[in-house]
Design goal:
Two copies of one chain form a homodimer.
Chain A (H helix, E strand, L loop, with lengths): L1 E4 L4 H12 L4 E4 L9 H11 L3 E4 L16 H22 L3 E6 L30 H12 L6 E6 L2 E2 L8 H7 L7 E2 L2 E2 H13 L5 E4 L6 E2 H11 L12 H7 L13 H5 L7 H10 L6
Parallel strand pairs in A: 1-2, 1-3, 3-4, 4-5, 5-9, 6-8
Antiparallel strand pairs in A: 7-10
């Protein structure tokens, strides 16, 4: 059985749906019954339940968006950098494998020669490069805390979306924001992502970091073109002139926009669909919120 | 009455001694009865006890030295950056003033024109400048977490010492380390430091950051000369050739060596003795460990 932290969140809920579909037994670990995620309590839960795998889908992303992390700094550090360390300790003492949902938001842009970022590239959007949001800083620290961990997967998600209308869904965001910033990004179809995470464990691929985005990149304008084609033919979308205007008008802290290299996950046999296929599939099967 | 966190530590013990000497009522808050220092538990303690001031002398410094923080990263972040944020929340909701023991170890060297670092100088030995120990990174993040806090003192300590032999005492360290690195530093006499902290509150000096080191700086070789003069006339002290040799032979992570400007605390009327006076006084009244 699998212990799942952060089960009530956007990513955690997708893990729950996948486990139910595949009839995999799991226990959702709430913040309350883990006593603020203390390592000894997590260790005890592993022993009590006989869990053979643990997934950390808990994290602090900020509501309604990443700007909130500029205010709630301590909570953000606790959720994104301290908690992974406590889980590492618990899983290493219990000697079970586990996986941590990290983020590609620790990068910005792409390599000067055009390549996307690889798993072992040093973050270039973090506290250490002193150009990032507080959120990205804490996610990069979370990966530092897990450096050298035993039996640990680090799964990097980027800008999740699927076919279900939700305030956390990238497609919903694009349809509801008053104004958009055009940027090129690697993005992750949510079900593709959790399926790839679980496949890492099921297929026993080597432990380590995996960029789990849909192969390829897409610009905001390209996604808007798909939205108009499939879902909102009459809606007018408005764009900021550039990032400077976006930062001045709409944001408190810089956003990560980046291209990820997915060749490692492809070679390991846990590849996701090409990004355009995943986006079009989500739009064709769009389910409005109730 | 005062709530004191970290009362069992080196700095916390000095606060306890001071409170007892001055007959100031206080309660030592242990990690256990504060449930990992959760903000709501601290808030409840403030309300239960009617505390009118809180002092945070808790922190994660690494045993036997700061190199340990390179391994225990999550604990270090929790103790030095998350805890201050929880205390800030608790004290702001309870509307009481409080003080946090920070560190001058977020700086290295001195200004190019020779001046020491002022309270509002940006740290130059931190995650953001990407040249520091993990410990210094977390202490600088702790100050970031407290940026803009209400009714909050941030007291910067540096390399504490006094007349009592102790593994945490700078003078004991110099007498027991096999080899020393010559460096220039501002340092803090422990009783002078806690007295200055308390004076901030008693004298109602404006809230904010205070460098609480003994005015002036001293080099390791100068301290060794004083040690030989007053305490260990026959002992031979051995020095590393330079910092490169020190890093290669004895250390895993760089140390902060820096000069602090103390004019703000002097102007506020919470000055400490000149560094040479405090050192000579400690050596003349030296108490060996039992």
């Amino acid at each position: 059985m699998i212990l799942l932290l952060g089960a009530s969140g956007y990513v955690g809920s997708a893990f729950c749906s996948l486990f139910e579909k595949k009839e995999i037994p799991y226990l959702a670990v709430s913040r309350e019954n883990s006593e603020n995620y203390a390592a000894d309590r997590i260790y005890a839960l592993i022993k009590e339940t006989g869990a053979t795998f643990l997934i950390n889908a808990a994290g602090y992303t900020g509501k309604p968006n990443v700007d909130a992390c500029e205010v709630e700094k301590a909570e953000c550090l606790l959720g994104n950098a301290v908690l992974p360390g406590a889980l590492r300790n618990a899983c290493e003492v219990a000697n079970i494998p586990w996986g941590h949902v990290s983020s590609g938001c620790i990068y910005t842009g792409r390599h000067t020669d055009g390549r996307g970022f690889m798993e072992d590239d040093a973050p270039n959007f973090s506290f250490r490069t002193n150009n990032s949001s507080f959120y990205s800083g804490t996610k990069a620290l979370g990966e530092e805390v897990l450096n050298g961990a035993n039996q640990c997967y680090i799964w990097r998600l980027r800008i999740p979306f699927d076919h279900r209308d939700s305030p956390r869904n990238y497609l919903t965001k694009l349809m509801t924001y008053r104004q958009l910033l055009d940027a090129e990004n690697s993005v992750s179809h949510l079900e593709d992502f959790v399926t790839a995470c679980l496949a890492c464990w099921e297929k026993k691929v080597p432990f380590g970091i995996y960029n789990l985005t849909n192969p390829g990149t897409i610009t905001t304008r390209e996604v808007v073109a798909l939205l108009k084609q499939h879902l909102t033919p009459d809606k007018e979308y408005s764009f900021f002139t550039d990032e400077a205007e976006f930062m001045q008008v709409a944001a408190k802290t810089p956003r990560s926009n980046c291209a990820m290299d997915t060749s490692k996950s492809e070679a390991a046999g846990v590849a996701m669909r090409p990004v355009h296929d995943a986006l079009i599939d989500s739009l064709k099967n769009w389910q409005p919120a109730d």
